[in-house]
Amino acid sequence: MAILYTICTNSMRVDPVKILLVNPNTSAAMTAGIAAAARAVAAPGTTILAVQPSFGPRSIEGHFDEAIAAAGVAEQVHQAPAHDAVVIACFGDPGLDAAREATRAPVLGIAEAAFHAAAMLATGFSVVTTMTRTCVIAEHLVQRHGFERQCRGIHGTDIPVLDLEACGEDTVARIEAAARQALERDRSGAIVLGCAGMAALCATLQQRLGVPVIDGVAVAVKFAEGLAALGLGTSKHGDYAAPLPKAYVGWAAPLGS
Ligand code: 2AL
User: Fold this and answer.
1) Which atom in ligand 1 lies closest to the alpha carbon of residue 196?
2) Is 197 left (phi over 0), alpha (psi -120 to 50) or beta?
3) Class of the domain covering 111-215
């Protein structure tokens, strides 16, 4: 027993955790909002370095946006200063696997983190997201992360992502109404917010709805702190090993080695 205790404490980090928070879209206002939401839940001493790609869409609302944004996430993780964990703060988790190849630190997507948290708090949850066209992207994420049994519904509100940069009561009321309908129709016990831009609304919605409302940015930051504190990182055994050295051409040249 004494030996086990020594092994466990040896693997605990005591230094403050440095989190690289990547907003995959190129809205500086949204990057600032997501950074504020992350800092509001971070432990004392945790530092949050919030970044966004140097190219790509202002908001991510479809497959094309997401493909370009994934390259932007890869760019930011490739050129990142030293960090202990990475959070990808867009509900599509763009570039998640690429980022895991590019760093030894744990990398969390906010959709993946939110699904895990929701599944620990209710037997079933519903996702309330932005444009209806992104519902298929959320459905693919649910399948990819293996939450088909817990996710009981995905609901679009047709609120454009950039409307969340500075949203008023009308926008909050629309999300609240969609969440109420989802809880009823899906017989769900929790709501997952399907956009990083909704992070600031989480507490208000939870208070109004009376059920757990999960913002992926907040839970990803707390999971990231936990994994980093335990000295856990992305496995380099197998397909998450560093990318094979090779030249890249065109605008991607700096990403090669
Ligand atoms: C998002 C998000 O989190 N950021 C963004 O630009 N688009 N997600 C979404 N479902 O619209």
Assistant:
1) 3
2) alpha
3) alpha beta
Per-domain residue ranges of the chain: 16-110+219-233, 111-215
Longest distance between any two alpha carbons in the chain, whole Å: 58
Question: Residue 210 — left, alpha, or beta (φ > 0 → left; ψ -120 to 50 → alpha)?
Answer: left
Please state, in angstroms and rounded to a whole number, the distance separating the CA atoms of residues 216 and 234.
19
Encode the chain (257 residues) as per-residue pLDDT tens digits: 555 555 555 466 667 999 999 999 999 999 999 999 999 999 999 999 999 999 999 999 999 999 999 999 999 999 999 999 999 999 999 999 999 999 999 999 999 999 999 999 999 999 999 999 999 999 999 999 999 999 999 999 999 999 999 889 999 999 999 999 999 999 999 999 999 999 999 999 999 999 999 999 999 999 999 999 999 999 999 999 999 999 999 999 999 98
* Common-topology check for domains 16-110+219-233 and 111-215: yes
Which fold would CATH assign to domain 16-110+219-233? Answer: Rossmann fold (3.40.50)
Pocket of ligand 1 (CB under 6 A): 25, 59-61, 90-92, 129-130, 134, 161, 194-197
Lay out the sheet containing 18-22: strands in order across. 47-51, 18-22, 85-88, 107-109
**Residue 251 CB contacts under 8 Å (≥ 6 apart), including other chains:** 55
Q: Whose CA is nearest to atom 9 of ligand 1?
A: 195
Both tokens assigned to 52: 């966004």
